[in-house]
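SEQUENCE-TO-STRUCTURE ENTRY
===========================
What this section holds: a protein sequence and its matching fold, both as plain text.
Tokens: labelled as protein backbone structure tokens, with as many entries as the chain has residues.
Question of interest: how does this chain fold, as expressed in backbone structure tokens?
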Amino acid sequence: MLVAEEDDGPAQKVIGRLCRIAAMSLNPGTHKVGPSNGSLQVHTFREGMAQKVGHDLIIEVEKWEATVEVGQDGAPAAITLDADPESLRVREGVHGLKPLSDKDLKDIHEGIDDKVLRKQPITFRSSSVAQADGRLTVGGELTMVGTSRPADFEVGLGDDGRVTGKLNVVQSEWGIKPYKALMGALKVRDDVEIFLDVSLPAD
């Protein structure tokens, strides 16, 4: 799954300003990144009349791998990402009335596996990567729970090879039914934020 503020267009569009691309050159070749040199997180938000009893969640994807193909000109030419849907683990629950218990965490993890992502692969395959106006724009296809949809997002490249990105995903557009409890009085907001932060070798 890859990578938002208020959405004013299609759900697949990246929202918000990200880091500007600095004048730098990545090392040509195929670069693989994952949890050892980067992070992939999902942030969810609660809503509803009973939202005070719930938590906004910061969820870490523990098993994932991204591949970045860099051309001889030092610019990214293709990006892929594969994430294990059963590796999502809550790192923090914020804005709740009380801390999450071990039982809460167990129930959340089981809900993600069985009801939300349904243990189906998460993949992203780019079809275009372009630099313009100090930004890197990546276009491609995001697949979750067996549904593939176009996804365009912008990332920033630091002069040290750091890559950051942020993407809004509207769950229902991929056939995912947002979690609800207390007869719908507490529910997870349909749109979630995905954050990617990795480091690539650079000159």
User: Anything to note?
Assistant: The two ends are 29 Å apart (CA to CA). The chain has a mean pLDDT of 82.
